[in-house]
Write a structure and sequence with these properties.
Elements (H helix, E strand, L loop, with lengths): L2 H54 L3 E5 L7 E3 L6 E2 L4 E6 L3 E2 L4 E3 L4 E12 L8 E7 L2 E8 L6 E12 L4 E6 L5 E3 L6 E9 L2
Antiparallel strand pairs: 1-4, 1-13, 2-12, 3-11, 5-6, 6-11, 7-10, 7-13, 8-9, 8-11
Subcellular location: Secreted
Keywords: Secreted, Signal
Organism: Monopterus albus
């Protein structure tokens, strides 16, 4: 063989060795990516279940006292009375009952709850607007505005509470107090799940 043939043979052999090394490295990289993909596929059903659980655990409601064109008042009464909010803005999950005025907690978690009350002097009534937010009959927040010196009053309470599935949340109008509403929706009761704990 000639010198040129020797160099051609040597460089061809060297070139093939380089190609073979690159091929082995590529095969190792492909194998690594296949293993990662298989690992990700194994976690996919868990992620899908988590998404399904989080979607099914959504809970939110927002209601107002009434949706009447003219101002109407509820109360005052001689005893504390349950307020039944009839106008529904949203009732995601259907856990607020418009017949009873009670929100039954569907999933354990931390909930945000808000009540706003409003009253206006009508028909010689003295102004006393007051209510409380209750969980299972226990008072967790009180809103009251009883100045008696002005023509209208309002108050709001916002709380975040850990609640258990089945807990019952309601708003009660206190004895001697009144609330007034129309289509402006001054009196509202709102709650939503911040995050689930079960």
């Amino acid at each position: 063989p000639t010198v040129c043939g020797f160099f051609f043979f040597f460089y061809t052999k060297l070139w093939m060795l380089c190609v073979q090394t690159e091929l082995v490295q590529m095969q190792a990289e492909v194998q690594k990516r296949i293993q990662e993909a298989e690992k990700n596929l194994k976690t996919l059903p868990h992620a899908a279940r988590q998404h399904k659980v989080s979607k099914s655990s959504r809970s939110a409601f927002s209601v107002a006292l009434r949706n009447l064109s003219s101002m109407n008042c509820y109360g005052p009464f001689n005893e504390t009375s349950l307020i039944i909010y009839k106008h529904v803005f949203i009732n995601l999950g259907g856990s607020y009952n418009v017949q009873t005025g009670i929100f039954t907690v569907p999933h354990a978690g931390v909930y945000s709850l808000t009540i706003t009350i409003y009253a206006i002097v009508t028909g010689g009534n003295t102004l006393a607007s007051c209510a409380n937010l209750q969980v299972n009959g226990q008072v967790v927040a009180v809103v009251t505005e009883q100045t008696g010196r002005d023509l209208e009053d309002s108050a709001t309470a916002v709380v975040a509470l850990p609640l258990k599935a089945g807990d019952q949340v309601s708003v009660k109008l206190l004895k001697g107090c009144l609330i007034c509403d129309n289509s402006s929706h001054y009196n509202t009761f709102t709650g939503f799940l911040l995050y689930a704990t079960d």
